[in-house]
UniProtKB/TrEMBL annotation:
<feature type="binding site">
    <location>
        <begin position="123"/>
        <end position="128"/>
    </location>
    <ligand>
        <name>S-adenosyl-L-methionine</name>
    </ligand>
</feature>
<keyword id="KW-0963">Cytoplasm</keyword>
<dbReference type="GO" id="GO:0005737">
    <property type="term" value="C:cytoplasm"/>
</dbReference>
<comment type="similarity">
    <text>Belongs to the RNA methyltransferase RlmH family.</text>
</comment>
<feature type="binding site">
    <location>
        <position position="104"/>
    </location>
    <ligand>
        <name>S-adenosyl-L-methionine</name>
    </ligand>
</feature>
<dbReference type="GO" id="GO:0070038">
    <property type="term" value="F:rRNA (pseudouridine-N3-)-methyltransferase activity"/>
</dbReference>
<dbReference type="InterPro" id="IPR029026">
    <property type="entry name" value="tRNA_m1G_MTases_N"/>
</dbReference>
<dbReference type="InterPro" id="IPR029028">
    <property type="entry name" value="Alpha/beta_knot_MTases"/>
</dbReference>
<keyword id="KW-0808">Transferase</keyword>
<keyword id="KW-0698">rRNA processing</keyword>
<dbReference type="InterPro" id="IPR003742">
    <property type="entry name" value="RlmH-like"/>
</dbReference>
<dbReference type="Pfam" id="PF02590">
    <property type="entry name" value="SPOUT_MTase"/>
</dbReference>
<protein>
    <recommendedName>
        <fullName>Ribosomal RNA large subunit methyltransferase H</fullName>
        <ecNumber>2.1.1.177</ecNumber>
    </recommendedName>
</protein>
<keyword id="KW-0489">Methyltransferase</keyword>
<comment type="function">
    <text>Specifically methylates the pseudouridine at position 1915 (m3Psi1915) in 23S rRNA.</text>
</comment>
<keyword id="KW-0949">S-adenosyl-L-methionine</keyword>
<comment type="subunit">
    <text>Homodimer.</text>
</comment>
Length: 156
């Protein structure tokens, strides 16, 4: 099973890079996480949000590994607990699925990405900076794996 995080944004602040790297490093080898950064569309006064999101969605689709179960990350998606995430990971491992978590850029994700995703999840009802989402997602994946492996990192 492979986990992919496709994230729009490619010049993240050092604290984002350091946070993601820390949890990426901690993941067990049998549950590798690969970050695929998607170049954001250039913003400009003449460009409408729809055309920006459409261009980014095309880049996401081009970078998306084949045959992945896709989870779009969006603040309006389904909320879940870390225990539920661990349960989902166990189920996905049993099914032998590779999972792609898709994080939009500053303007979110195009509606077609959300429409074609297998699931839409939310890490919070709050609107979060897209760079921070990759760190939070990496930490939650690590925490879920610690639950599965009965490692004491997670304290319920």
């Amino acid at each position: 099973m492979k986990l992919y995080i496709l994230a729009v944004g490619n010049k993240m602040p050092e604290w984002i890079v350091a946070g993601f790297t820390e949890y990426h490093r901690r993941m067990p080898k049998e549950m590798s996480v690969q970050l695929i950064e998607i170049k954001p569309e250039k913003r400009g006064a003449a460009k409408q949000a729809e055309s920006l999101l459409l261009a980014e969605s095309e880049r996401i689709r081009a970078a998306l590994p084949t045959h992945c179960y896709c989870v779009a990350m969006d603040e309006l998606g389904k909320g879940f607990t870390t225990i539920e995430l661990a349960g989902n990971l166990v189920n996905w491992m049993r099914e032998g699925l590779d999972i792609a978590f898709i994080i939009g850029g500053a303007d979110g994700l195009h509606r077609d990405i959300k429409r074609t995703a297998n699931e839409i999840w939310s890490l919070s009802k709050l609107t979060l900076p897209h760079g921070l989402v990759r760190v939070l997602l990496a930490e939650q994946l690590y925490r879920a794996m610690s639950i599965i492996k009965q490692h004491p990192y997670h304290r319920a």
